[in-house]
Amino acid sequence: MSSLSATPSISMKARLLFSLHSLGFDLARFLRRRESGINRTIMKLFDLKSPPCSSQINGAASSLDVMVDPSRNLWLRLYRPWTSAATPLPVIIYFHGGGFCTMGADSRFYDIFCRSLASETPAVVVSVNYRLAPEHRCPSQYEDGFDAVKFLDAVINLDGVDLGRCFLAGDSAGGNLAHHVAVRAAESEAALKRVKITGLISIQPFFGGEERTESEMRMVGVPVINMEATDWAWRSFLPEGSDRNHPAANVLRLDVSKVVGFPAATMVVVGGFDPLQDRQRSYHEWLVESGKEGVELLEYPNAVHAFYLMPDLPETPMLLADIRDFIQRHAARPFN
């Protein structure tokens, strides 16, 4: 159920930061140089970047960048937490949000979140920098995502890491991407020798459809996203001539019960002030009806879309704790 309050209770700082990023996205769309494009110069002014950090300052996770394919700027940022535990760490393969059109693994918002995620779980977080639309349309992002998993499987060697306990995770568009990569990994299980996908963490996933949901029509004027912006993102991402019922957007049109090896353990996160909440609940119900065990729905009634990018919001540490608990419960579970 969505929150009964008319507006979310969030800090003025969070409102300002969300508003600035939304402004940058709108300006980048409206000041584009061609009909189907985005002004990257404008977007860079609002998407501050953070370099990797090799030191573990105050116990925080260290990070380093690893190139996968320079021809498509596909690379990984690896976060390793400080821990005295002797048990090998699980791995979280993370896909950032941004409507498939903006942000990156080095965006300051995501660098802070992934560093916290690595430290709080604890786990090695592998944040994937994938190609962006509209310059690169679907299925480029899914190809990048699965290629990143295969690269981790075949190339990267990390001490104290258990690749047999990998979790795919992502938020918004990254939640959509994580789902489709999970399907590809399940269908191509023979292609992975060391990496075993144990679970899926879907944080406010970005799914769509031609028919408007009740929450999409009702939640006008909430922070971060609106239907005009999401419609533009779908038009920019989906193959030319496709509508929002394309399987990339409307995943409920697929039969996931027939995908042998799709992770049984799935965590779906919903915000009470997210216009996409109805689709996210439907995704959870669809997984349950498909016979997947270990599917969990976490609802934060006061949460707006992308709340986790603001460390000062009370729901952010709650989410980190819930992810930690989910991974600890399911780290030993095999495929369904």
Automatic annotation (TrEMBL):
Matches recorded under SUPFAM superfamilies: alpha/beta-Hydrolases (SSF53474)
Molecular function terms from GO: carboxylic ester hydrolase activity
Similarity remark: Belongs to the 'GDXG' lipolytic enzyme family.
Coiled coil: none
Family matches, as InterPro entries: AB_hydrolase_3 (IPR013094), AB_hydrolase_fold (IPR029058), Carboxylest/Gibb_receptor (IPR050466)
GO terms under biological process: pollen tube growth
A Pfam family assignment: Abhydrolase_3
Domain of life according to the entry: Eukaryota
Protein name: Alpha/beta hydrolase fold-3 domain-containing protein
Domain called Alpha/beta hydrolase fold-3: residue spans: 92-308
